[in-house]
Structures are given as C-alpha cells and as structure tokens.
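assembly run, all chains below
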Amino acid sequence: MSANERSFVQQIWDFFCSLKLTISLLITLAITSIIGTIIPQFPNIDDRYWATISTTKRAVYDKLGFFDMYHSWWFLALLALFTINLISCSIKRLPHVFKFVSQPATTLSDAQQKIFPSRDFKLSAPLEESKERLAAFLGAEFSKPVITKVDHHYHFFAQKNPWCRLGVYVVHFSIVVIFLGAIIGTLFGYKGFVAIVEGDSVNSMQDRNGKTIPLGFEVHCDQFTVNYYNAPGGGGPTGIPKSFKSIVTISENGKVVPGYKNARLIVNEPLTYKGFTFYQSSYGQATDPTTFYFSVRDRVTGKVEQVALRPGDQTRLADGRSATIVDLTDNPGEGLVAFLQVTGKTGEPQQFRVFKDQPNLDELRGDRLIFAFTGTDARMYTGLQVSKDPGVWVVWTGCIMMCLGLCIAFFMSHKRVWIVLSPGHARLFGNASKNQPAFQAEFEALAEKLHSLNI
Amino acid sequence: MLSAKLYNITTIFYMLSTVAFFGYLAGRNRYIGLAGSALAWIGVAIQTVAAGLRWKESYAVGLGHIPLANLYESVVFFSWSIVLIFGIIDLKYKYRVIGAFVMPFALLGMTWAQLYLPTDISPLMPALQSNWLTYHVLTCFLGYAAFAVACGVSIMYLIKARSETTATGPAGGLLAMFPPTKALDELNYKAIMVGFPLLTLGIITGAAWANYAWGTYWSWDPKETWSLIVWFIYAAFLHARFTKGWVGRRAAWLSVIGFAATIFCYLGVNLFLSGLHSYGSLK
Ligand code: HEM
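ok done. output:
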C-alpha cells in the first residue's frame, strides 16, 4: 500500500470514528425526523389530504420518500451511517479503555503528579513500617492497594469501580442491539388487523400492505360488549366508552384449543397463541338492526315484560294496547333513540321517545307502563390488531442494557488514589472520572483520616 | 372541591417564591434567597396534598384514576416536577440563584393551567387504563422538568458568557450574583445527566406500553417521533462535551433548543399535529 492510499484509508477511518460526525448525524436525524410528523405517512393518508396538495408536489414528495420517510432509502442510510459511526468509534476506543481498566498504571507519572489534587504528610515512622501501615490504611478505608517500588520510593495504587468506564460502551452497544431487534421483527414478524363479526370466525389476517396472511388456526368471536361511563350523580350511562371486551374462542383443525375457550380479550390485556398476539383495538356495528328490544315494567304490579319491536309492525302489550316504532335516530351525545307510539282501544295514541343510553328516563313520563330500550339485534364486529414479532425480546434486552449503561455511565465514578512514599514523607493523590465535587469531599476525608493516624 | 383551592394556593406560593428569587438576584440578601427556596418547598408540599386529594375526589365522581390523565393534570404535574427537581439541585449544589430562572417555568405552568385549562376530572379512555400510564407519564415529566432546569441554567450561562466577552471592566450588578460560567456549564450537564436517563426510560416505558396495548412498540406517531427528536438533541449535547468547538456556548444553545423541542413534544404535537396521544388535546 502506498503512503497515499494509506492516508486515504486512514482519512476514511478517521471520518467514521469522529465525534463531529456523531453530532452532525444526531442533529441531522433530529431535523429530518420532523418531516414525517408534518406530512401524513403511509398507510394513514386519506383522500382529503391528496386533494390539498398539487400533483407536482405529490410527485416530488413521492420521489423523496416523504410519504413513508422513516423507511425511505435516505433515512435508512442515515441510520446505517449512524451505526457505522458508533461501531467504528467503539472499535477504536474500546481496546484502550479495556487496557486502561484491566492494566492500570500503578505508578504516577510526573505529569499526573502535577495535575491531580494532592496532600502532603510528614511521617516519623521508619520507611518499612510506614509502608505496612499505609497499605493497611488504604485497604481498610478505600481499597486494597498495589505497591510498586520505584527507585527509593514506593508507589501505592488503589481504585474503585474501574469497570464503570465501560458503561458508555454498554449504552452504545445497546443501540446496536435495539436495531438488531427491530431488523429481526421486520424480517420475520407480521403486523396486521382482523375484524371479526360476532358469531363469525377468521383464519387469516391483513398485513400493512393489504396482503392476506394465514394464521394456521381459527379465531371465533363469541361476543362483543361495550361499557359506558356513568354520568356523575347517577345520571345513567354517557356516550364515553369505559371498556370494551371481546370473548373469543380459538380452535385448530376443528378442535377448540384447551385454555382458549371463551377467552377474554380487552384493551391492555392481549391474548397470545402460537406467537400471534391479538390486541383489542376497535369495534363497530357490522349489520343494521332489524329488531329492537324493550323491557316494559308495570308501575303498579311491578311485572316486567320483554318486547321485541320491528319498525312498521304493531306489537300487543300485556295491558291490551299495542306499540309500534315510528322513528329511530342515532345521534352523537344522544345515542340510539326510538320514537314509539302506543295505541289503546280508547283515548289518544301516546307518542314518546325512549333513549337506549338512559334506561330510567321513561319513569318520568308518568304512564303506567315504563319502557326501557335494552338493545337491538344488530351484530357488532371487534377489531383486533395482530402481531407476531420475534425481535421484541431483543429490543427489550437492548432497552434494559441502555438504562443500566446510562446509570453506570452517569452515576458511577472510577475513583483512583495513589500514595508516593519516600523516607519521612508521603503524598496522597486522587482522581475520579465523574462527579468531582463529591470525590473532592471523599478525598479530603481520606486525607484527614490519614493525617490523624500520625504515622 | 378542596383540591382546586389547594392548587390555587400552590400557584400563589410559586409566585411568591419567584418574586423572592428576583429580589435575591437584585438585592443579594441571603435570607431572601432562603425564603425563595422555602416558599418553593412549601408550594410543592401543598401541591402534593392537592394531587392526593384530587386522586381521591376522582373516585368520588366514579372515575377513579391517578391525576395524570388530561392536559390540566399533566401541566400541573409538570410544574410540580420542575420545582421538585430544582429543589433537589438547590439542596445538592447550593446555587440558589438559578431559582430566578427556573421557578418562572413552574409558575407559568401553574398559572396557565389554573386560568385557562378545563379543570374537570375526565374519564379515561380504555387504552389509558393501565399502570403503564403512571410509569410512562412520571418518567417523561420528571425528565422534562430536569430539562427545564437545564434550560434555565443555560440561559444564565449564555447571559454570563456574553457579558464576559463584551465586558468593560468587571461584570457588576445582577451578573455578579450568577455562578461562574464553569459552574453553570457543570450544572447544565448535571441536570441533563438526570433528565436524559429519565427521558430514555420514558420513551422505553411508552414503547413497552404501546407494545402491550397495540402490539407495536414503535409506530413513528408524531409524539413518539418528537420524543426521539428531543432525545437526539440531548444525545448531541452529551457528545458535545468531548468535541472541540462544541463545548461552552454551543452546548448551552443545544440545551435551550432541546428544551424548546421538549415543549413542542409536550404541547405543540397536541396542538398542531395529530396522533395516538390525543388525550392531551385542548378540546
Ligand atoms: C454515532 C453514534 C455515537 C458515537 C460514535 C458515540 C461515541 C461516543 C464517544 C466517543 C463517547 C465518549 C466516551 C468517553 O470518552 O468517555 C461517548 C459518550 C457517550 N455517549 Fe455516545 N456515541 C454515539 C451515539 C450515542 C447515542 C445515540 C447515545 C444515546 C444514549 C450515546 C450516549 C452516550 C453517553 C451517555 C456518553 C457518556 C457521556 C458522558 O459521560 O458525559 N451515544 N459517545
């Protein structure tokens, strides 16, 4: 290799190892990430958005990958460069740090003696006795020292937490681990969605790109229910859902899987089978209602009768009158409302409204029969997110490593203490990798104790 | 409700504390500085009681959840965290005067929440009914609060550094009260050293929760993305210290920009962008 090539390779290596590159990359990632928070991202773009931008703009954005920017070639390239930077930097520095930790310099250089904080002590004990007592002192008060003889001096070296210098590298490595987990998830995992109508089954799901993926088993939705918050002060249910719940049964080859019969699936309590996890995420009405159910209570006798009404039909009630549905509305805030007409042999027909979400309201009307709107035969569907992600444990491992690494890097300190002993004289030196004020105090305390020993 | 009254009293204490710190900055009277800190601590204690009461009151109206569920509650908690983190840094590092640059953030938050935000206890939508909500919000906001302290310190740094370079004679008056730039730089770093792991934990608990509720730990939703942007900026800050040309003033700017991004992540995303975290919206 010629000197020129050598320096060229060296330059590239230096470029990848440079912290200036790190800062530039971090800032570039921060700035470019903003794009995807402003421009809608695939697959959540609706037609209304397309109508607001011109075709040229759309073409340009499309070319630049702005509609799926976190998966665009240039963003992935930035992340790749980031990873290369991280790995090169570690390769370059880690061996030094490792050596620094595993083979510490047990004697102090003149330069270090000038810069590290120090304290002087006059000693009256003979040299060998001083040596023994100082070694015992450091062993008891700090950590067991290594003693080296240099000319006519003894150099004592003692340290605490040397390995915490590697904390930063744990953090850096954790980022690589998280990326690895994300890549495993992308390559070998699935993300998708299924909607199951009450009483129906599915055996496949739709992924992000609309592709159908077989599950290898069947999921049957037995029942779906929604609970609503009650208005304060006992005002009956409001329109705000408190919880929604699916009851599902999983079967394979026509047989119900043990433990998965009528299994509960609610928000924040997913259900896992064969690596696929189902998450309760949405719901809706699958079919229009044709029959409407009411419970009718007799104010005097207290007897309750269940009545099914179909729009247009006349249905006889227990007291001989007949009821019919005149109109139905379903407005936000009001919920489902039936407009009923009750006709007797004598007297005016009565018309009144019954609210599905307000079961006690009809009492106020004053009639002998009190109507409560209990439900319809409309079928609901349950919307489930489905995912299979074999990389997720790798990601969590990386996350835990990162937290531990950060705590080590920030809150632990590699502390070193030296004593240079010569006849009649000792000098104590100290140095810490972090939190100098705290170490300063510890160092002073150590010096005081040494002083009070009167060696 | 009693909790609402206590929140008002808290706001008054934060105001008095801010005024005391301004007085300390101007008059350099040690006791006024001490009063500033004491008022802040009393305010935080009252606010803690208020939050406990509000929690209890939420059960009384049949909703029953920790008061971290809507914009009002989170702004109020943000103020609480700022005062707490400032209090701890004050106890530990004894640079009381930074209170003049930190307490205003807490006061601003409380005032805005008390005057302009709907204070009702609101129902929790099903996705938010999880213990992860508590871990996630707690870690995020304590992190944000540490960044608020770092931002206050950085502003002091920038003012002081500027007066040092353009100084005509020794910097007198207010600036003499400021800690030396080296100490401010160190405090800035310390605050971010507290905030960064908390933010990291906040992002991770958020991801864990999302994975638990939806099966996706990361979906590039605007809130998630902005928290990552904030994280990138402070990561850049942490590395700036090892890079010639980035120490000192540029690092202080990174800290200020980082906090601006934090505020955008917290409020801007809800006001201007849309996504999963809609519970914080103003409607
Ligand atoms: C391209 C990517 C990166 C490179 C090349 C890089 C490189 C470095 C280097 C060389 C150091 C100095 C170590 C020392 O001498 O003590 C460092 C410190 C550090 N890095 Fe990174 N880093 C990168 C990304 C990150 C990221 C994304 C984080 C986020 C968690 C991070 C967290 C840290 C921390 C916490 C420190 C210690 C800072 C301190 O002690 O003040 N690094 N990094």
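Residues 131-165 of chain B form the longest helix (35 residues).

Residues A 19, 22, 25, 82, 85-86, 89, 93, 168, 171-172, 175, 406, 409; B 235, 238-239, 241-242 surround protoporphyrin IX containing FE (CB under 6 Å).

not gonna interpret more than that til we talk
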